[in-house]
Structure prediction request, 256 residues.
Amino acid sequence: MKFLEINDLTKSFGGVQAVNDVSFSVDKGEIVAVIGPNGAGKTTLFNLMTGIYQPTQGSVVFKDTDVTRLTAYQVAQLGIARTFQNLQIFNNMTVLENVMVGRHTKSKTGFLGAVFPLGPVQREEREIVEKSLDNLAMVGLADKALEAANSLPYGQQKMLEIARAVALEPELLLLDEPAAGLNSTETRELVEIIYGLRDRGVTILLVEHDMETVMEITDRLVVLDFGNKLAEGTPYEIQNNQEVIAAYLGEEGLGC
Ligand SMILES: Nc1ncnc2c1ncn2[C@@H]1O[C@H](COP(=O)(O)OP(=O)(O)OP(=O)(O)O)[C@@H](O)[C@H]1O
Ligand SMILES: [Mg+2]
Prediction:
């Protein structure tokens, strides 16, 4: 059984082939990056994997389950969590509540539990608070738990979004440009968080433009260009791939 299989995935928006016949797989425990110039289809790929978009053709198979046509909620329940390129923090909630939202998605008592807060529900609620605090501690935000989420600086809001995704206890975590907008200290913290998650058995697929970080932390990379898979390989193979270098020439280069 393959952990994750992307098969011939295609998505067109009108005349734009955002993702075109892309196939690759990810093994459990790997850290894999999807890279490519702006507009290459990276975020669309994540949206196709998480029930936000339905593909024009192709499939996403997670642990032998075809998740292609599932809703975002169902995909999350199966163990795939994500963060967004554009932050999606609940501004009017505290830092802790933002993470608890992630945990409530998993909660057994769910919505009814929140409406009828009886014995077992109270226990579960307490557990949700404790585990959410653990998730915050993992990203260095435990002492900010009761602050308003929108009072955090940008870098910490990004960490908060990771904590909320991790609260789902995913087996596969998708991170869309986690290092964007972070300073170098925050980027180091991010790398440690990613390694920590990997050590806990979480498989990580990330989209990232920060090539130095990507080449350091990934086991393998998939390169997209104009929706097509241009290459796939180890950091060394990708850094020395002429087609990849050419695709990046119009941009900032591979930068490492
Ligand atoms: N909802 C949409 N409707 C129409 N076109 C879209 C939509 N979403 C994405 N596209 C187009 O699909 C292509 C791929 O976009 P996508 O956001 O996946 O790129 P990306 O690789 O994530 O780029 P970036 O590095 O800038 O985030 C682009 O041409 C984009 O304009
Ligand atoms: Mg994107």
User: Anything to note?
Assistant: The first strand starts at residue 4 and ends at 13. The chain has a mean pLDDT of 92. The first helix runs from residue 42 to 49. The two ends are 35 Å apart (CA to CA).
